[in-house]
Amino acid sequence: MSKAVAVEAVGMTMRFGAFTALDDVSIKVPAGTFHALLGENGAGKSTLVKCMMGFYTPTEGQMVVDGKEAVIASPKDADRLGLGMVYQHFTLVPSLTGAENLVISREDAPKVIDWRWERRQLADFMETMPFKIPLDQPVSALAAGEKQKLEIVKQLYLGRRFIVLDEPTSVLTPNEAEEMLGLVRGMTKRGDLTVLMISHKFHEVTAFCDDVTVLRKGKRTGSGRIADLDRKTMAAMMIGDQPIATLDSRAATPAEAKPVLTVTALKAKDRTGLKSIEVDGLSVRAGEIVGIAGISGNGQKEFLEVLAGQRIREGGEIRVKAAPYASTREQSRNLNVRFIPEEPLRNACAPKMTVAENISFRTFDLGRNGKPAAWVSARAIRAYAAKLIEQFKVKTASLSSPIQSLSGGNVQRAVLARELTGDVDLLIVSNPCFGLDFAAVAEIRARIMKARNGGAAVLLMSEDLDELMELSDRILVMSDGALVYETPIATADVHVIGEHMAGHH
Amino acid sequence: MENDIGLWGVPLAILGGAIRVSTPFIFVSLGEAVTERSGRINLGLEGTLVFGAMAAYAIAVETGSPWAGVLAAMVAGAGFGLLHGWICSFPRVNDIAVGIALMLFGIGIAFFFGKPYIQPSAPNLPAIPLGDWSSLPQVRAALNVNVLFLLGAVLAVALWWAFKNTKIGLIVRVVGDSADSARAMGLSPTAVRLFATAFGGALAAIGGAYLSLYYPGSWNERISSGQGLMAVALVIFARWNPLGCFAAAMLFGGAGALGPALQSVGVTQGYYLFYAAPYILTLLIMIATSSPGRQLAGAPGELSITK
């Protein structure tokens, strides 16, 4: 096997019109090292990587590969120099087998494929790999971790000796992530491979990487050996000196707190229609956060859709404060049930309607006395929205901007403003911080904690285990459409939870 | 009578009928299988089939060669496929709507150009008498196999092999299953689909040529009885597998021969009902193999009906 490649980018600058996405950033990745690239969303990580791989032509800047200046004008040039990239979203073809995926991705794939010969070649090649993956199964039958490994194997099979991993563990369980990163680490140590990993998970970076480069707002704000830096320093490099909301301390849940949400023997079809989800014996009490962990696609989304009234229930019972709950507007209003769904722009907003209108969805048809009103008052809507925007610090150009023109964090703030105002007895939340920056994440988590301390029962579904560990009072694991494990937070162990998520029990 | 084979005539007639009637189904469904495997549906194949039948007949009349007619049909069919593929390459164009438009266009334009060719008679495509060993006329009739049927059988195996063992086959499957992956590999999904649709059109037109040049063997405006549309259903039934397409085409051909076969052994009542057998079979198969909530196994991921 050929040897790892050293890659250096010098003075990379990328301007899109008047906007400078990348400002004079240099990064040096010596051969056989595992380098982390840290930064918030929009800090310029992907722009930098795309400039290095030839997807963008940088306004200024140079590439040095193995000590020699290199011109990388297109991804093809990057290929030739042995530079490759593994995307966050898989690029394997689901219905093809692993072997077919590997062979067809080769530039020089023969017109007629001699499978006997190719299989032998692949077997020989896999001997040199630390990964063991079944190559004769369609990729769609592989677990997420196996797909991720196959993506990396594909890069190596294509002769790449410097690879960029773009948030490679975002779809993996903690155990899968550790195994995969450990194997990659081994390959860099042996000098077979150089890796640049985009990440925002500090624990992965500190456990597996050699060096780190941190970006903020298109500038390099720090770099160095991981061994010399602690998390606090790295976090400061990432977010600068902006104020970060702190989590309220957890008020004890009163012992006599009544269950607000109870779910018994709930059944519904999942999105493929082939399987059902069955949720039984879930109860959330007032003043506690119950977290539901699970790898995406194990029925959490369907469960939430049933609770929100977006999916038909086939059987079972949902009760809120002992009253049967069928997700009508009337019931959610009377029982004070509120939702913060994932992808708020899609699931909780009418994207083209104004910020003010979106904020008043829960109240626009109520008169001053709280009774249904026949006439909608635009003035009352604007006054109400203006008050909430002020209170929740939603950044918007005006009250009448369409809500889709807001940034992700501000859409989520607007939804929070709507859902958390007034009496909240039950709050159902799903992946509330997905794709948001540090400050917004901290603020949203603080608001959820505040609602809990205010006596609301909170059901929190999240694919981010760290988030669940931080917020929950109890954690349940959903796997294959059913709740399979429960633990109070005091005894929660990420690895045990991960094993249940993967269905290894 | 020594030639009377009694009720044995029914299965024999069904076999013979299956071979005779299935050929257009084989070609149209193989063509549609290739197009759909690339991630696009061409519902216009009925129009391509009718136009192919007309083009083949006209050219055969003019040149005196049925093979020139088949070739002309293929060129015309590829043209229809290219037109479909080209229109669908624009953003936000729905391939199903375009297919329906092209179906009506193909039928209409075939009638327009075909008027002068209803009267003259064209030379037929040759058949190979595989039943010469038998003294029974029924056996001889049933095993009088057209060359195109044999070509269709060979083509089904060839396509099945090519989807697994050739670069082009894998590329078509990649494009049909994940356009993003294809782009990441540097392939152009639009170009691949354009050629896959053209190929499918050419094959569908051969099916039409068979209709006008062999069985029933004349050109008129009622030449097709919906083979082009039913073949689309066949492809789904066959799970996009060329060998499955061949088997399904034989099944449909056999069902289509049920009516005439019963008639030939003297069933005089209700045999019209059996003429409807292929259509009823289509309905039953679609009901049996579909479900409101789940995706079809083996469906190409980029197909607009399964997405």
Automatic annotation (TrEMBL), chain A:
Domain annotation ABC transporter: ranges: 7-242, 260-505
Database matches in Pfam families: ABC_tran
SMART domains according to UniProt: AAA
Stored Gene3D superfamilies: P-loop containing nucleotide triphosphate hydrolases
Entry's Gene Ontology molecular function annotations: ATP binding
InterPro entries: AAA+_ATPase, ABC_carbohydrate_import_ATPase, ABC_transporter-like_ATP-bd, ABC_transporter-like_CS, P-loop_NTPase
PROSITE patterns, sorted: ABC_TRANSPORTER_1 (PS00211), ABC_TRANSPORTER_2 (PS50893)
Top-level taxon of origin: Bacteria
Key words, A-Z: ATP-binding, Nucleotide-binding
Family: Belongs to the ABC transporter superfamily.
Name assigned to this protein: ABC transporter ATP-binding protein
Source organism of the structure: Chelatococcus sambhunathii
